[in-house]
């Protein structure tokens, strides 16, 4: 009983802290990188990183509304932060030699390692070979995941990066243009992924960025679109959130998805924010023998 009371009190303190930060963020004239913006988002991340058993789904409607608005603010701020540093990196002769100036670059290195290990685990237990073609949806102006995976883990793989913003793609392309290897293996497409159909069958693995689909309804529409057009047996890597980290990113419920078989779910407990879900597309063959890798 005492532990339950402690849990309720901790959750109450967390919610109050998150709401206070939201109020401060919502009053700012801009979310472009600055001392005030950086300080508030640092406070928010530090509040949400520790393990929490909070169930976001049971929060009252007013807190749910604040959470939805906060996720949008996080998405906007993240886009502005990436554009800011992409511009800085693009001013170097070889931008890829200076990636560590981005304050969260080490997180992307960890995330890339985690996601590669999940992929490699699946490939090593099946007849599936190392992915030849990978797509990343929502790559943005700073496509760190593609760069990290291409540079350190999937060195013979071609990466197709999709973003709806042509400027983001232009900035991203500039980052790899001076690199002899990556400039040949990184392709950028400006498109709304909901308009991309047959081309999706060309990819062995598709990554879906956490902020593609800012609410769960929109995200589920994208996921079902992928289920319809991905090649049977291809892998979808989703980034979701767990516990208090759900104040920062939308949460994807694996049980609510149709057309995919769950292969693995991983919830990090360190400073890597996103949970990682991997799914096998079985949209065209509901095969009971499809391998499921336990999480």
UniProtKB/TrEMBL annotation:
Output the Gene Ontology terms for molecular function.
Answer: methyltransferase activity
Pfam families xrefs: NAS
User: What is the catalytic activity of this protein?
Assistant: 3 S-adenosyl-L-methionine = nicotianamine + 3 S-methyl-5'-thioadenosine + 3 H(+)
* CDD domains, alphabetized: AdoMet_MTases (cd02440)
Q: S-adenosyl-L-methionine: present as a keyword of the record?
A: yes
Q: What is its EC number?
A: 2.5.1.43
Alphabetically list the UniProt keywords.
Methyltransferase, S-adenosyl-L-methionine, Transferase
UniProt record, GO biological process: methylation
Source taxon at top rank: Eukaryota
Give the UniProt family note: Belongs to the nicotianamine synthase (NAS)-like family.
Name the job this protein performs: Synthesizes nicotianamine, a polyamine which serves as a sensor for the physiological iron status within the plant, and/or might be involved in the transport of iron.
- The protein's name in its UniProt record: Nicotianamine synthase
Q: Which organism is it from?
A: Tanacetum coccineum
